[in-house]
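User: Predict the full complex structure for these chains.
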Amino acid sequence: MKRGTPVDFKVFRVRRDRARSPKTGKAHDVTVLEAPDWVNVVALTDHDEAVLVRQFRHGTEATTLEIPGGAVDASDRTPLVAAKRELREETGYVARQWRRLGVVEPNPAIQSNSCWTFLAEGARPAGEADPDEGEELEVVLVPRSRLDSLVRAGKIRHSLVVAAFYWLGRHRAEGGNR
Amino acid sequence: MKRGTPVDFKVFRVRRDRARSPKTGKAHDVTVLEAPDWVNVVALTDHDEAVLVRQFRHGTEATTLEIPGGAVDASDRTPLVAAKRELREETGYVARQWRRLGVVEPNPAIQSNSCWTFLAEGARPAGEADPDEGEELEVVLVPRSRLDSLVRAGKIRHSLVVAAFYWLGRHRAEGGNR
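Assistant: Here is the predicted structure of the two-chain assembly.
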């Protein structure tokens, strides 16, 4: 495979590779988006409320309702460190107990990275949020029991959030301690 | 907002916009990936087996196990038409009954498009698969009851497939007719 030179778009880099089929030997062009790993967090308070964020998203040019999350920075030693940092920065919340729920690949066809989902229990406010430049976030508390109906009603639409709720559902079905 | 000129990478186009915060008035650069809408299909045979595809994916440079899916082409009148075409092209299967399960946004932060998930029941082989150039697919039948354990074991990792299984689980929990 002949790997292309990446074009840097800040939040990700794009490269064009010349790939050869292992089966037929035929060559074709493929496009790959290079990004750091991502994390997201299902944070639940002791009143069984999920800590969500409402924000304007430039991809869809619309306001979304999501769980907190972001990219694993070079200074984060692990995805868990990044998840704790993102929860704190985006919402001002910290949590008593952390657990990894699962990991997905956002899009293995065109992206090289993974997204790690964590469950943060005993979430509580610990100060002001400190979002990145350009981020404007509003924290919204929603009873956990309402999350599925928000997805069904199209209020929560981000695929990585829906995948996180898949993990949350499996965790509970398997006897997670809530 | 000052919209950038898109750079065409075939499967998607990338543009850099200059966006202004509605709240603070401060301008900053944002990157947007333009792609057509996508579809994917949970296809179940009358023996309650899911029709999956195994293929090499260039993003992660690994072989994945996924449900069939792809982009809505300009010639597809609706996402449903695209879903039927993709199932037929990628697996050679057709189905008796189609139903929309749900829709997600693959990544509203950086992408403008949606992904539509369909449930196809009564799936059966109807001829040879006819994949796109560069696609090499192997059809794999898996009992529906094993899908969750394949996700948990990390054998199925594509976020849009996990989101589709979220919809499938909700459909069944709400009394879907299987």
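The mean pLDDT of chain B is 92.
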